[in-house]
Specification:
Blueprint (H helix, E strand, L loop, with lengths): L6 H37 L6 H32 L10 H25 L4
Helix pairs in contact: 1-2, 1-3, 2-3
Length: 120
């Protein structure tokens, strides 16, 4: 007869998986905002005043950087509380690295915003 799994262990696994899903959702939200900001800067230049296109795109790109930062911050917050437990999670350094790279990409995109849209 197969032994029943420990319910406490299963709850910890569900918590770890929920933390990873939350991290992925923040990253997905940030990527969507980044792509939307760049798309607005690229394709709406002829339809709207240039200043408004740049402001809207800059707000979305800044929001994406904040989302990437919050993804790592929230992941670390729960990860630190679970380090003493025997639960397999994405390594904290890897989540930090991914978020750092994405924040850097958002900042580069923000700087490049003024080169994508033609000046008046």
């Amino acid at each position: 007869m197969k032994p029943e799994p420990d319910t406490n262990s299963l709850a910890l696994d569900r918590t770890a998986l929920a933390n990873e899903r939350t991290y992925a959702a923040w990253i997905r939200t940030g990527l969507a905002a980044l792509v939307t900001g760049l798309g607005i800067a690229r394709f709406l230049v002829d339809s709207m005043p240039l200043w408004s296109v740049r402001v809207i795109a800059a707000i979305l790109i800044l929001f994406s950087g904040v989302a990437f930062f919050l993804a790592a911050w929230r992941y670390e917050h729960l990860h630190v509380g679970m380090t003493h437990l025997d639960v397999k999670m994405i390594p904290l350094g890897m989540a930090r690295l991914f978020s750092f790279v994405l924040v850097t990409c958002a900042l580069i995109a923000l700087i490049g915003l003024w080169y994508i849209a033609p000046s008046p």
